[in-house]
Amino acid sequence: MANINTDLQAYRDLKTSGKILRNILNNLKVSVKIGTNLLEIEKIVNENITKQHAIASFKDYDGFPSSVCLSVNETIVHGIPYNYSIKSGDLVSIDLGIIYNNMFTDGAITLNFSRDIKDKILCQVTQKALSNAIKIIKPGIKTGDLGNIIAQTAESANVKVIHDLTGHGTGSAVHEKPTIYNFGIKKHGVEIKAGDILAIEPMFAFKSEKIAKNKNKWSIKTINNDKSAHFEHTVFVTQKGAEIIT
């Protein structure tokens, strides 16, 4: 697990990496609309990354063919952009990884193009779970504490945690230890330390807790083909809490 508690330059590069990622996602929140093609989003992301002298960390990672994961409705994560225009009623998750001067950040949002109140609640609860988890981060807590509060947030709204997909450490690689499950037991798991870099990413669905692979061997969908939502931040653990990097 990357720990940069005493490395000021690495911290600065991490902040820059996170700022690039955050700005790209914020711009997509405004520009992506019903009718936007997923391939257009991929193009926009690539252009922005190049302009800011950064690298897309997902591109060619274990053979993944795209710079950004675009996952629609029942596809939870690892959606490969294809010739599809967003429709009314869609939930579109955008998951992006950035490398700047060898510092990795990871972030995700779900855009809601549906008028269904259930879709709105699913997105709100998933985002709330991310916020609740970040609020309790400080040196000395365990990964089980994070999973526990994420699961409790899901249960309070009667939605399901996707059990087989997790958060993780990051900073010097796309995925590092520890694995951060979106469920857990308080005071169990790996202890969090100041200087750690964590990617916290709750993924919820209406009915599904289990996953299935799509035909492209990359994209992961809900077992019941129900809609899903995904939100993620990279955070830096400080002496007193957590700083949101993305």
TrEMBL record:
Which residue numbers delimit the Peptidase M24 domain? 14-239
According to the record, how does the cofactor bind?
Binds 2 divalent metal cations per subunit. Has a high-affinity and a low affinity metal-binding site. The true nature of the physiological cofactor is under debate. The enzyme is active with cobalt, zinc, manganese or divalent iron ions.
Q: Which reaction does it catalyse?
A: Release of N-terminal amino acids, preferentially methionine, from peptides and arylamides
Alphabetized, the UniProt keywords read: Aminopeptidase, Hydrolase, Metal-binding, Protease
* Source organism, top-level taxon: Bacteria
Q: Name one Pfam family in it.
A: Peptidase_M24
What cofactor does its activity depend on? Answer: Co(2+); Zn(2+); Mn(2+); Fe(2+)
Question: Gene3D superfamilies annotated for this entry?
Answer: Creatinase/methionine aminopeptidase superfamily
Q: What is a single molecular function from GO for this protein?
A: initiator methionyl aminopeptidase activity
Q: Which InterPro entries match?
A: Creatinase/aminopeptidase-like, Pept_M24, Pept_M24_MAP, Pept_M24A_MAP1
Q: What is its EC number?
A: 3.4.11.18
Provide GO CC annotations from the record.
cytosol
Share an example GO biological-process annotation for this protein.
proteolysis
The keyword Protease appears for this protein: yes
Its family remark reads: Belongs to the peptidase M24A family.
Q: Which PANTHER family match?
A: METHIONINE AMINOPEPTIDASE
Biological role: Removes the N-terminal methionine from nascent proteins. The N-terminal methionine is often cleaved when the second residue in the primary sequence is small and uncharged (Met-Ala-, Cys, Gly, Pro, Ser, Thr, or Val). Requires deformylation of the N(alpha)-formylated initiator methionine before it can be hydrolyzed.
Q: Tell me what this protein is called.
A: Methionine aminopeptidase
Query: What gene is this protein a product of?
Result: map
